[in-house]
Amino acid sequence: MPTLDALAIANELADAAQRHSLPHFRTAIDVITKADDSPVTMADRAAEAAMREVLARRVPGHGILGEEHGRERLDADHVWVLDPIDGTKSFITGSPLWGTLIALVHQGRVALGMVDMPVLGERWVGRPGLGASRNGEAVRASGCTALAQARIFTTSPDMFSAGQWQAFDTLSRRCALRRFGGDCYSYAQLAGGTADLVVEAGLQPYDYMALVGLVEAAGGVITDWEGKPLTLASAGHVAAAATAALHRQALEVLATAA
């Protein structure tokens, strides 16, 4: 990868987003329903606009894929994938489990993934091959290799179709415990070793590309439900696990149940 202070840029992007999102948390804000029926706030849009201003100044030739303001130059060698407020429903209901997601994709591969949790004061960074950290301290996924000992997370049953829910329900009932409602923070928990599996469906690239960088850098495995690498063109069915053995068992159950 060409010399590029990607981490410094990512930190600047997260700082810019936080300045526009955090002051609006737990305040009276206007909620807009998008065409896909997902809620968006003015804080989302202002935060992403601020992030794009940073990129225009720092790396004007890079591509951008953002949730709120579309795509630019996706054929560039470097593409930044931005979600200013992942977990908008958490944001508008006063839950602290929303975050800013930032990924740098270099020639199709994730070079950096960041999950910034403004309310919690936690910034998770993953650079595959260089490790993962929380606020500068190294983290690593657990060594869990068996479903019976696994802690499995997903954001909501509502994200699954009927068949997908059956698959998740079958899988999760073979695990030690299951939890709901984490949004992007579930993947940070996996990277930090306090969760072992995260299975979701219907995500967009700005929802999962940063998570690819973080989970892989922490020693975990993250793919689609068929075991294929997640890319900008993936369908958005995500299965993340602490170990390859656990990941393989999860995919076997998902395939059987589906």
Describe this entry's structure for a reader:
It is an enzyme of class 3 (hydrolase). Helix content is 33%, strand content 28%. The protein has 258 residues and is of the alpha+beta class. A hairpin with a 3-residue loop joins strand 3 and strand 4 (70-72). The longest helix has 17 residues, at 42-58. The chain is globular. The termini are far apart.
Secondary-structure element pattern, one letter each: HEEHEEEHEEEEEEHEHEHEEH
The tally of strands reads: 15
Instruction: Please state the structural category.
Output: alpha+beta
Shape: globular
Number of helices: 7
What does the radius of gyration come to?
17 Å
Main sheet overview: 8 strands, mixed
Average of pLDDT? 93
Strand order of the largest sheet: 4-3-5-6-7-8-9-10
- Helix content range: 25-40%
Q: What are the low-pLDDT stretches, counting only 5+ consecutive residues below 50?
A: none
Quote the beta fraction.
Answer: 25-35%
Distance linking N and C termini: 39 Å
Short characterization:
It catalyses: L-histidinol phosphate + H2O = L-histidinol + phosphate. Helix content is 33%, strand content 28%.
Topology:
Elements: H1 6-21, E1 31-33, E2 39-41, H2 42-58, E3 63-66, E4 70-72, E5 78-86, H3 88-92, E6 99-106, E7 109-117, E8 122-127, E9 131-134, E10 137-139, E11 151-154, H4 162-172, E12 177-180, H5 185-192, E13 197-200, H6 205-217, E14 221-224, E15 238-241, H7 244-257
Parallel strand pairs: 3-5, 11-12, 11-13
Antiparallel strand pairs: 1-2, 3-4, 5-6, 6-7, 7-8, 8-9, 9-10, 13-15, 14-15
Helix pairs in contact: 1-2, 4-7, 5-6
GO molecular function: histidinol-phosphatase activity; metal ion binding
Pfam families: Inositol_P
Family: Belongs to the inositol monophosphatase superfamily.
